[in-house]
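ENTRY TYPE: protein
WANTED: fold as tokens:
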Amino acid sequence: MVKIAVDTLGGDYAPEQIVEGALQAAELHGIASVLTGDERRLKELIGDRPGGSLLEIVHAPEAIGMHESPVEAVRRKKDSSLVAAARLVKEGQASALVSAGSTGATLAAALFVIGRIKGVERPAITSLMPTLQGVSLIADVGANVDCRPSHLVQFAHMAAIYAEHVLGIHQPKVGLLNIGEEPGKGNALVKEVYEQLTGGPLNFIGNIEGRDIPRGHADVVICDGFVGNVVLKFAEGLGGALFDMLKEEFTANLAASLGALMLKPGLRRIKKRMDYTEYGGAPLLGVKGPVIVSHGSSNAKAIRNAIRVARDAAENNIVATIEAMLAAESK
């Protein structure tokens, strides 16, 4: 049975919302999890809930704070909840890792404890962005701010594998984020990546611009971590600001309020499509076990979905598929 290692001390609402998410994943999806954290507190939170039968506990009461040095904390706090969860994946006692704690610490634990896949130069953090066509997977969104062309090419291959095997997108369209669609546009990095991806095995559609992302022109969007993080944070801020503006306008007077009442069902559906909790977290690609990096403010719903996504990645053998791709390329 697939088991997901869940760091219960990472995140703004740990451990209550993390445990609740694991319970919901067990009760709604039948997913087994191994919770790392303070054993006494975890037992209290699980209580006699039906999903508790699918949950195991590993005592690891030390937490890694958001403001600690990620590398130093992972090396120093060997029995922290995050490191303990990563160790479970390394030792084969869990199939994947979910954490809403420090992104840097999660990346460090994944690299130093679980280890990177042989042949992977740089693991990539990806993010799902809602579009008019469904979702687009963006890689990288923050793990690597300075990249070589070969890094972005690997990001493209790993993200395409994830899109096809976990998201169910047949032959995903891969786009290179640039300042123009023409092949000669951009800096030296993206020009070289464009050349390397052209004519390759991926369904590469060429350069795309930032405005093309929300329209869903590409299923996979490739960029370095600096650009990807700016895109991600801008999209989060813009989405929140738009809904705040709508709320302000719809409550301006009685007529606007009545109009909002009629539009409420549609607005609720749009909000759901843009809600990060629906997607659970950001897959970290390139390490020897599926790792889902959840938002620091993740609630139980977000954790439940992160566990579901981690289960899907494990069951679809994402790591083995990436290993096979790299082995084929090295021949």
